[in-house]
């Protein structure tokens, strides 16, 4: 995006990650405001050529292989702004939302991540995930805007760049699907506040090419792997049964080759944070939101990290 010399420098870079979704990018890239970094995860459908031709102002990073969610880290590292917004190839931020996020970050230096309200498809139906975040039972002093959360959907999150990088960004252990969970845990453990602010809005038109069944198995596998990396052993053991129920035996079997890496990354969370996660799990078990609808919308079975 061009800017005049009198215009203020942008404060937010939007990082988009895509793989073989050329048509979705054609519809979404032009909607982004400010600098954009597109990390292409080894697409073979002509995505890179299309972006180079149609969107020359987009900073394109064509990867030879698919790095999964970790590809977002590359975009964050390339960003030259203090804040970074994530978007998928089928989502974009509503006008004014990133400017509002900038004002919040500037005013509240304790905040490391802001989660936005998600409106689905052309009908702009609110994602059920938003209700879970809006009614979060986590303790709140009222000093910060929005509601406290311990989970988020990547396509509807803005992060403080330094905070995100300080916790290692998205990791290679889970690869993709449910990758937000460990990042949320580590940001909170490091003392950063995570807030849901519904005044920030993201439009999400889920791609028809999404593989629902395959994604459910990945989320179940990655919930188990994240529990191994961060949760007490009793919680991790319970996740074996939970993963089998949600994603089938395949979810557990596919986790086995990744267990050595998960064990090497193991670092249990502070006791007070673990208490909050258990509180969330108990609350979420009784919350009257259609969790299946959440899974349909964003591929997540839970939010706020309430999986213990």
UniProtKB/TrEMBL annotation:
Q: Which UniProt keywords apply?
A: Glycosyltransferase, Transferase
Please name the pathway: Cell wall biogenesis; cell wall polysaccharide biosynthesis
Kindly indicate whether the keyword NAD belongs to this entry: no
State one molecular function term (GO). glycosyltransferase activity
- Give every Glycosyltransferase 2-like domain span: 17-164
InterPro entries found in the cross-reference section:
Glyco_trans_2-like, Nucleotide-diphossugar_trans
Hydrolase among keywords: no
Which family, according to the similarity comment?
Answer: Belongs to the glycosyltransferase 2 family.
Protein name listed in UniProt: Glycosyl transferase family 2
Q: Which organism is it from?
A: Kribbella flavida (strain DSM 17836 / JCM 10339 / NBRC 14399)
